[in-house]
Amino acid sequence: MRQFIAKALHKQYNIDYGEMQADFSVPTEEKKRRVIDIAIFHHEQNHTRENLTRAVFCRPTPQIGSNTCLRDPEEMGKELDDVRSILRKIPSCEY
């Protein structure tokens, strides 16, 4: 899934592969570390927290079948809290 999304970011948004980094670790507000699946940095800048501009979290594609269901709001809320925490902690991260 991560490779598929990285290719889409490159082809659709012209984000250079050199501006992306897989498994970039950042602290969150709860003093835990969170790993960003694809971190995108400002053009031609070092891959540091200060230069982080976007954080991409990848989730596996659900298998379509009789047991396929949408995530419940609690599962979605936890992921959104992780994203909000990173956005508050790293001012340069816009998305």
Description:
The protein is α+β, with helices and mostly antiparallel strands. The chain has one domain. The chain contains two helices and three strands. A three-stranded antiparallel β-sheet has the order 1-2-3. It is flat and about 45 Å long. The model has no long low-confidence stretch (mean pLDDT about 85).
Sum this structure up briefly.
31% of the residues lie in helices and 23% in strands.
Looking at this protein, list some descriptive labels.
95 residues, alpha+beta, 3-stranded antiparallel β-sheet, 23% strand
Coarse structural class: alpha+beta
- Rounded mean pLDDT score: 83
* Number of spatially distinct domains: 1
Strand count: 3
Secondary-structure element string: HEEEH
N-to-C CA distance: 19 Å
Largest beta-sheet characterization: 3 strands, antiparallel
Low-confidence stretches: none
Number of helical segments with 4 or more residues: 2
> What percent of residues adopt helix (DSSP H or I)?
25-40%
Strand content: 15-25%
Rough outline: flat
Strand line-up of the largest beta sheet: 1-2-3
- Rg for CA atoms: 15 Å
